[in-house]
Amino acid sequence: MRLRMQERITGAARSGLGRSARIVQSLGGGVLLTCLCAAAPAIAEPSQGLTLSAFVEAVEAGNLELRTQQLGVAQVRAQVGVAQTFLDPSLSGGLYSLDVSGQGQPTSVGAQLTVPLEGVGKRSHRIRAAQADVQVAQLQLQDSARTLRGRAAIAYIEALHMRLIYAQKQKTLESLEKLVRLNELRLRAGDIGEVSLLQSQVEAQQFKREVLGTRGELEVADAALAQLLGRSQPESAGPLVLQGDLRRALRSFELSALLQSARQGRMDLRAQEKQGEASGVRVELAKRNRGIDVAMSLGWTRNLATKAEAFAQPTNDTMSAQLSVPLPLSRIYHGELAVMQAAQSQAQAQLSALELKIETEVRQALARYRAEAERVALYDNGVLATADRVLTAILYNYQRGGATLLEVLTAQRSANEVYLTYYESLAETAKGLVELELAAGLWDIEL
Fold this sequence. Notes:
This protein has 447 residues and is an alpha+beta fold. The chain has helices at residues 2-7, 11-15, 17-26, 30-39, 52-62, 64-83, 122-188, 194-228, 255-265, 267-289, 335-399, 405-440, and strands spanning 90-97, 108-117, 294-303, 316-324. It is built from 12 helices and 4 strands; from the N terminus they run ααααααββααααββαα. 27% of the residues are buried. It has one domain: Up-down Bundle (Outer membrane efflux proteins (OEP)). Strands 1-2-3-4 form a 4-stranded antiparallel β-sheet, with no helix packed on it.
């Protein structure tokens, strides 16, 4: 394409080669070098700043949603104390009999102690069920922390990605602005027409709009980081200083090891297993609840002396004891037991479904991660270098009158798009690594 364009260069343009060479000499070759470097920047080495691990730790410590769930665990733990309560005995007493008719009937006073006896195993099974609920809540909290780490890492990666895009577009804008200054020199030298200068100026102004839009997206990404940290970002605060390199996300994994890690390290799977155990305890509790609760009573009565002929008696004390047994007519219904048994079956089915879901997640995440890593390798192994060479050659020829402005702008856009696509692949690879480790119950990511 470049050769065909060169064949169409007019004789007047060919005669301007000498003037172009003098312009390049007067600029000391600086325009060519700076344009090339701005169009194809390398990823800068990270400066001292907030690392991924430090950011994730800060998120776990300050995230408001996680703190709310921690308070929920405390509420569930308090239910253990509720389950430990037992039936209270009752003490009653008073005036049992007082003659108000004036016939001389003796006066009686007394007291009675009633002790309810709860069925065997009811209290212990209530406590076991409450303790199982605490373990489920704690495991769910750990799983929430796992997913929160994933959200934090994705937001951190997106912020790094936006910084790369912003730096790339800024350097491309600088390259276009230097191209405008070069065209101003060539116009004064009579090497090009005014239309070429105007076209380069329009291109630079249009691209500046993209730079401003990217800066806004960078601020949005930083606001997302601040929200995860559980605090608002002051208006006067500049962009966060992040220390990370997306190229560190390139790693190798074995499917069998990942599946084994997922079976052992996924807290949602552990929570579902414990939920099944809690359902079994509740089935046993429902069976115990079908038993009857009896009550034992012990009473004392004092009959005061009376001299009435019909009721003559000395003062005497009597004791009584009785056992109260309810008639369990309501036990013909099995509603509570049926509900608990259905919940147990449901928990077992959910466990099987979750095991299959986790295995599928691991396989899918590994496939996506490997595909993104291969895309990055494709760019590292030739695409970036080819885009650099093409841009270098066209810029060199243009400054000597051997290429058109259209060819320069096309090469500039192509190189910019190649690097933006490369940075997107790096970001997607890093996100794929996060998703893969979340699926496998791992966390050893450091960018």
